[in-house]
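Hey, I'm writing a tutorial for new members on how sequence and structure tokens pair up, and I'd like a real worked example in the thread rather than a made-up one. If someone can provide the structure for the chain below, I'll link this post from the tutorial.
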Amino acid sequence: MAFAFLGWKNMSDGFTGVAGARVTAVPWGNHFALFATDASGVVSCAGGDPQNGLMGPWAPMSDAFSGVAGAPVTVLPWGNHFALFATDASGVVSCAGG
């Protein structure tokens, strides 16, 4: 069985990541939410869908968190919100919800 996919869309507008870094995608209504750590160690989020691309620019999740460039972020649905888990630049596991 062959699958027919739509063409690739750029989801990086306003986001500077690290080549090969992980992006976490989770369902968000009829859209998805993307989470990634940028090249400066800032965890950011954006929402969108495959047909229309991003709904707006990437936004930092916290000014008080500094991770390692391109480090993974684990995201879980939490009621009508998300819980984020990441390891900061000093190795401390941190959590944020929103």
